[in-house]
Amino acid sequence: QVQLAESGGGLVQPGGSLRLSCAVSRGIFSITAMGWYRQAPGKQRELVARVDSGDSTNYAESVKGRFTISRDNAKNTVYLQMDSLKPEDTAVYYCNVDGVAFVRRSFWGQGTQVTVAS
Predict the structure, then answer these.
(1) End-to-end CA distance of the chain
(2) What does the pLDDT profile of the chain (118 residues) look like in tens digits?
(3) Is residue 117 a contact partner of residue 13, using CB atoms and an 8 Å limit?
(4) Is 117 left (phi over 0), alpha (psi -120 to 50) or beta?
(5) Largest CB tally within 10 Å, which of 29, 49, 73, 113?
């Protein structure tokens, strides 16, 4: 069964840190890009950070210098280190992976809530 297992969300005070993890099941092969998106209440889902198979990264302007995306290909896992968190970072964070499970397509996790509040 194809599955993306996200973990690491929670409640943190402004200025704090969280680390999100997304482990990809064995059902997905030939993984290329891996990334994180987020959706705040009443807003559209937006790209937070993405890393391709060559380890090139891109970030939303709003998180540059605060968030770091990385991947461990041996573990089929992507991470998002979030530092200096702000209340406006509050959202549901979704893992996204491009890979093959019968056909090449984009896969999504179920989301993990990140809440930044004092």
Answers:
(1) 39
(2) 668 999 999 999 999 999 999 999 878 889 999 999 999 999 999 999 999 999 999 999 999 999 999 999 999 999 999 999 999 999 999 999 999 888 889 999 999 999 999 9
(3) yes
(4) beta
(5) 49
